[in-house]
Design goal:
Blueprint (H helix, E strand, L loop, with lengths): L8 H19 L8 H16 L5 E6 L15 E2 L6 E10 L1 H5 L6 E8 L10 E7 L14 H12 L7 E5 L5 H8 L4 E5 L3 H7 L3 H4 L3 E7 H14 L2 E7 L3 H9 L8 E3 H4 L5 E6 L10 E3 L2 E10 L4 E10 L1
Parallel strand pairs: 1-3, 6-7, 6-8
Antiparallel strand pairs: 1-2, 3-4, 4-11, 5-8, 5-9, 9-10, 11-13, 12-13, 13-14
């Protein structure tokens, strides 16, 4: 296994950007076509092809499901040429398949990479999540607080009224009680139908996105991807795994998780420096969508390195 010092994030970052770009371009033909599976498969195929061109010994730790459930980019799949550093890869080839199929905002292709052993091997279960942007002391908000307490504490830390706080929440029936409590604080709520990686990322740039906090339950793998993004952008995220049955607890045990009540911080979920890339498929608050012109497709990718805190926006004009 390659040492962590062999993880040359600077050299690998542009290759990672291309992986995200090509997955987005592959899904472009399916925007607004109503076929979620076809859009996802196109992105998966392109991402896998590009990963296998990189000089890495990669293992997918956050992927498209377990080996028996996903034909490609499953958890545990090895990617890359087999030369170069050993790396963990977390990915969502198309975060927002429904958003893509319906041509709705904030569909992204998302991928993160770090040294081997640097990312939590989160099972495919739900995670209770809470995230805020950079610049706040630890403990301003916690998962043990009620939703109303979180809003009140964040408003106090920002020196504003609770009416000036906007919370991003995934629109699901399971969140109705939480939404009712939030509305009692006077805060604004930005509802999203899908795409909670983007939802968490919104917190890191509140001046641009208008989002101050994210809360609610969603996929645990997406929680690790969001933690990788905030590792680069700054901000806090907390996650606690939620289990509906013994089968899901068995998945957690298989992933090496024994404390089912643990609250994971950003640096628990991503323990080393990572690189992160996301390309816009449909336009949104973070990234513009793919732009079509006669003979051309143009993408925009956000490319980040936690080691340096650098955030680049890469525009790629590609012959159609």
């Amino acid at each position: 296994m390659a040492a962590k010092s062999d993880f040359n994030d600077r050299m690998l970052s542009l290759g990672l950007a291309r992986v995200a770009e090509q997955a987005a371009i592959a899904s472009a033909d399916w925007i607004g076509r109503g076929d979620e599976k076809a859009a996802d498969q196109a992105a998966v195929n392109a991402m896998r092809d590009q990963l296998n061109r990189l000089e890495i010994k990669g293992v997918v730790v956050i992927g498209e499901g377990e080996r028996d459930e996903a034909p490609m980019l499953y958890i545990g799949e090895e990617v890359g040429t087999g030369d170069g550093p050993g790396v963990d890869i977390a990915l969502d080839p198309l975060e927002g398949t429904t958003l893509t199929a319906k041509d709705m905002p904030n569909a992204l292709t998302v991928i993160a990479m770090g040294p081997r052993g640097s990312m939590l091997h989160a099972p495919d279960v739900y995670m209770d999540k809470l995230a805020i942007g950079p610049g706040f002391r630890p403990g301003v908000v916690t998962l043990d607080m009620s939703p109303a307490e979180r809003v009140s504490n964040l408003a106090a830390a920002k020196g504003c009224s609770t009416n000036d706080i906007t919370v991003c929440v995934l629109e699901r029936p399971r969140h109705e009680e939480m939404l009712s409590e939030l509305r009692g604080t006077g805060c604004a709520i930005r509802m999203i139908t899908d795409g909670d990686v983007a939802g968490v990322m919104h917190c890191a740039e509140p001046e641009q996105t208008g989002i101050d906090m994210y809360m609610g339950s969603g996929g645990a793998p997406e929680g690790v991807l969001a933690a990788a993004a905030l590792k680069c952008m700054g901000g806090q995220i907390f996650g606690r795994l939620l289990f509906r049955n013994d089968d899901e607890k068995g998945r957690a045990k298989a992933a090496g998780i024994t404390n089912f009540d643990r609250v994971y911080t950003r640096d628990d979920m991503v323990t080393e420096d990572v690189i992160f890339a996301a390309t816009g498929v449909t336009g949104g608050s973070l990234l513009p969508g793919i732009k079509r012109e006669v003979g051309w497709l143009t993408t925009e990718t956000i490319l980040m390195r936690s080691k340096t805190g650098s955030v680049r926006r890469v525009i790629y004009r590609n012959p159609a």
